[in-house]
Amino acid sequence: MNIRKLQEKIKEIDYQPERKEIYILKLVEEIGELFVAIRKNKTLYYTNLTTIRGTIEEELYDVLYYLLAIANVYGVDMERAIILKNEFNDTKYDRK
Q1: Contact indicator for 63, 30 with CB cutoff of 8 Å
Q2: Whole-prediction pTM value?
C-alpha cells in the first residue's frame, strides 16, 4: 500500500475535521509511545512474531495514521508533499 492509498483509507474510516485538535493530541501521545518502544528496543524480532502490540512497528504506524489524519483535515496530499519536499531538499543540499 502506498501513502496515497493509506491516506484515502484513513479518510474513509476516520475523517472528523472538527476533531483536528484531538488528532494532534493523539499524534503526540503516539510519539510518546514510540519513544517507549524504541527505548525498550521492542521490535517484532524482540517479541513474539505473532504480535505487533507495543512494538516500534505498531507505534510508527500509529504516528503515521494520525499524521495522515491531520493531513486529511487540511486537504494536504502527503504523497505530493513528500515529492515536493524531496525535490526541494535535493536542490537545497545539492543532492543528485
Answers
A1: yes
A2: 0.89
Neighbours of 65 (CB within 10 A): 19
Residue 53 has pLDDT above 80, yes or no: yes
Q: Which residue has the cell 519513544?
A: 35
User: 75 is written with which cell numbers?
Assistant: 486537504
Is the Cβ–Cβ distance between 22 and 44 less than 8 Å?
A: no
> Looking at the domain 3-92, which fold is it?
Helix Hairpins (1.10.287)
- Mean pLDDT value across the chain: 94
The residue among 76, 72, 59, 82 whose CA lies nearest residue 20 is 72
Domain ranges of the chain: 3-92
